[in-house]
Amino acid sequence: MARRTSLRFILPIGLLLSAGPALAQLPAPNAAGVSSGHIHLMVRDPAAHKKIWVDLFGAQVVKSGTLELLKLPGLFLILGQGATTEGSIGSTLDHFAFRVKDLAGTSAKLKAAGIPLTRDDSLEIVASFPDQVKVEFYPAPTQSAPIEHFHVHFYAADIDGLRAWYAKHFGAAMPTAANANALGLPGMSFSFRKTDAAQAATKGRSLDHIGFEVKDLDAFCKRLAADNVTFEVPCRDVPAIGLKIAFLIDPAGTRIELTEGLARH
User: DSSP letters of 157-194?
Assistant: First the structure.
């Protein structure tokens, strides 16, 4: 059973990040038509998670039809309600991460909110959000925004095969020639850690899936199908939320949602 995190949201005004003007939209897609999209959490108390991201990090609440989104530079967070008992640790998607302009200030805000930190130094913060969602923060003092999405971190037994799969089907490219253990899409880097055994699939856990925004999703899904990629949910329009979506599972067990339409927000 996931342990319940005590949250205290009485913060000094000076500790809050200013949301400022409209946040940056999703980045332009790569040559394959893919960019970062969203991270979808299934949690017991979505309102508690929403309060963290809005109050501490200036996330903007926007709507896509009936769907509520939390908008951050380069990424959307989506919160669903579910009786989740397993967190992100132990699954194929161990955590997601952000770069922040003021790492020390971020540490102070998280501590004031009662969020446990398992690492807290000048190089990295590792935080345990409610429902055992692991989130990391890295310093980026020269970036213009207070916070920007950085990476998602896969844990898998066959990281060579997993990297090759993302490179082949999504056009994921090396962010730097020096880092042979990473790939990337516009707005989202991928890190990989080899494990001795296969990890749990993400579906049904608090970090249920990641999402990629895709240009011309119908054509993209047809290309994946021609490469023998199996869909959990085939490409379809969802008028209620104003998006076109599809779901699939990567070879390690990470659930992925493909969307077309998030970039409009």
Answer: S-HHHHHHHHHHHH--B-S-TT-TTEEEETTEEEEEEE
